[in-house]
Amino acid sequence: MDAGEQHDADDELVRFWQERRVCFLTTTRADGTPHLVPVGVTYDHATRTARVITGRDTTKARNVRRAAGAVVAVGQVDGRRWSTLEGVATVRDDAGAVRDAETRYAARYRQPRANPERVVIEIDVRRFLGTVRPLARGPRA
Fold it and tell me: What is the mean pLDDT of the chain?
């Protein structure tokens, strides 16, 4: 693969994750069954980080906190084009991380409503699946 092909694939992935669409987040419940919910997701390809804003006491946030180090997945589809990002999730509640995630969310979707109980689920993306993905995983930024 040449550098041009890699750059084109990365550009397509970034554009795909900037387009406004509903995504799905899959976490694991305590009994091992999947919990799949619609969410808004932002993705930063330079750091390989996906972010989901949510309430502190939502099932998805509780699942991530309970299973520290567990792998989650976020995905989206547009006709035959689809992309899934898998990685290790962490719940962050510090004001800086939440504010950053809200700003990113506003750029992709709309300004989120005020929520003093907001947290951000940060996903350290380790694997890409789908028809829209990088051709090869390069070094992490």
Answer: 92
Residue 74's beta-bridge partner residues? 25, 85
140: Cβ–Cβ under 8 A, 6 or more apart, which residues?
Answer: 47, 48
- The pLDDT assigned to 127 comes to 97
pTM: 0.90
* SS3 label, residue 36: strand
What is the Cα–Cα distance from 88 to 67, expressed in whole angstroms? 10
Q: Mean pLDDT throughout 37-61?
A: 97
- 32 vs 71: CA distance, rounded Å: 12
Residue 69 dihedral angles phi and psi, to the nearest 5°: 85, 0
Picking from 125, 139, 133, the residue whose alpha carbon sits closest to that of residue 52 is 125
**What sections of the chain are H helices per DSSP?**
3-16, 59-66, 95-108
Q: What are phi and psi of 77, to 5 degrees?
A: -140, 145
Per-residue pLDDT band for 7 (boundaries 50, 70, 90) equals low
How many degrees, rounded to 5, is the angle at CA 47 between CA 8 and CA 24? 80
Rounded distance, CA 46 to CA 40, Å?
19
